[in-house]
Amino acid sequence: MSIEEKIKALNDKKSKLKLGGGRSKIDQQHAQGSLTARERIEALVDKDSFQEIGIFARHRCTNFGMAGKELPAEGVVTGAGSVGGRMVHLASQDFTVAGGSAGEVHSDKIVQAMLGSLKTGTPFVFMNDSGGARIQEGIDSLAGYGKVFYHNVMLSGVVPQISLICGPCAGGAAYSPALTDFIIQTAKARMFITGPSVIKEATGEEISAEELGGPLSQMNHSGVAHFVAENDLVALRICKKLLSYLPSNNIEDPPQLESDDVIVPDKTLNSIVPSEQKKAYDVRNVITRLIDGGDFLEVQPLFAANIVVGFGRILGRSVGIVANQPSVLAGALDINASDKGARFVRFCNAFNIPLVTLVDVPGFLPGVQQEKGGIIRHGAKMLFAYAAATVPKITVIMRKAYGGAFLAMCGKELETDRVFAWPSAEIAVMGPQGAVNVIFRNEIAQAEDPKKKRDELIASYQGTFATPYAAAARRDVDDIIEPADTRRHLAMTLDILSTKREFRPMKKHGLIPL
Ligand code: HXC
Prior knowledge:
Bound molecules: hexanoyl-coenzyme A
Mean pLDDT: 96
GO molecular function: acetyl-CoA carboxylase activity; propionyl-CoA carboxylase activity; transferase activity
Shape: elongated
Number of helices: 20
Protein name: Biotin-dependent propionyl-CoA carboxyltransferase
Domain CoA carboxyltransferase C-terminal: 264-496
Organism: Citrifermentans bemidjiense (strain ATCC BAA-1014 / DSM 16622 / JCM 12645 / Bem)
Keywords: Transferase
Helix content: 25-40%
Structural class: alpha/beta
């Protein structure tokens, strides 16, 4: 064969392999409103930047009619490409090839891409669309998943890992995304460990696949998903935006964008927090006024909505924002909010993203369910995560900061670099009503007019503690600032702290309460 013939044969072979499971399977994928594995990559990476590796890989299985059966690219497209000019490694499962099922070689290809991430300090993006472990390969496919899980853990905290769930993701396969930093789930994707039929057999419960593993279930109820997208293209847009806030690895700083955003006092902030102590407001209206262009990428918006977490920029610098949400459960910290907040804090700390914490918290949520559910160990995660974090930590107390929750929202004693308070801040062991009931029980009971006496005592308590001045005198608050000026103070502090280095004693690892 001449070289020209060999090149033609090569090109023909590659074109055929790139068709995956073939035209009719691709049409089925499109008919369901999904992109193919290759189309997803194309939509994610910069034009012509993708280098594929392992397109000729072949499985070694001979069971159940598999001998000699070609599964193009082994059902997963892997390689590297740039996103917004920065390199990422990626794997995209091809549902048109044996349902994207993961055999030994399929998983080895994913691991090779993960090692590419690890060696080059670049993020790993895994687009899941698979029937799970390839049944015909038995233990080999389980072992393949085991290697993927192991490498997920090796990459954790070294490079950002993002999972897109674009189709089925069932059984143990769901544990790879769960070991990554962020999960973006599309509307048609389903994630579960045991599907509806197994559940029906085991417990008698009946539920549809959508109700069990659809994006709303995995976002609102379980908190497994971090973002929900109508379709693949929206999921890929979220992925790109998320990457734009992040450094490529744990020893880089996040990218700093040129910013022509100016800092002008925003007088609307002066009246955004209602003067009535119990009146609710949406803290997202505060967040968007503090960050460049009001552009906030909220993480897990529908899970534990009593705490808001997400990314923004202040004069081009990435920041992670954690804020109590007074319009949900009065912003109290409960089990789910603590899990959500603590995990986000740990992600930001791992990837050198400064933390801005906005506080309006009446305390930890009281209740039998909360206590029996372990609010002690879950709430402790907030303390652990903030105390362990060495990135710049800036806290703004807007209104209530009561009790343990005052500390758990990045209080000064957790080596927080700056604590600002607005004049509306109230910092105390507990709210005035509860406090006077405890410390003045006898005085109230013995008073001629107990209600009048109680009101007087509440007013006296508020005058003493329900202001930021006592805390500022003790230097638990570094400065009391006009709300309108908050963005300027945050920008200045981020600048001052941009060279922050904080060293901790060497240890294998701490033990975050789980
Ligand atoms: C081998 C598989 C497969 C699998 C699907 N296929 N899943 N092949 N191993 N796990 C193949 C099908 O035989 C079919 O091949 C093609 O993929 C498309 O599948 P369909 O069933 O036709 O598609 P659809 O109707 O869309 O249903 C998709 C599905 C269903 C819901 C994913 O295929 C399914 O339930 N698959 C099994 C899921 C599962 O139980 N997996 C094991 C999970 S446990 P042809 O040749 O007809 O095109 C697990 C353990 C991991 O993953 C453990 C790690 C520790």
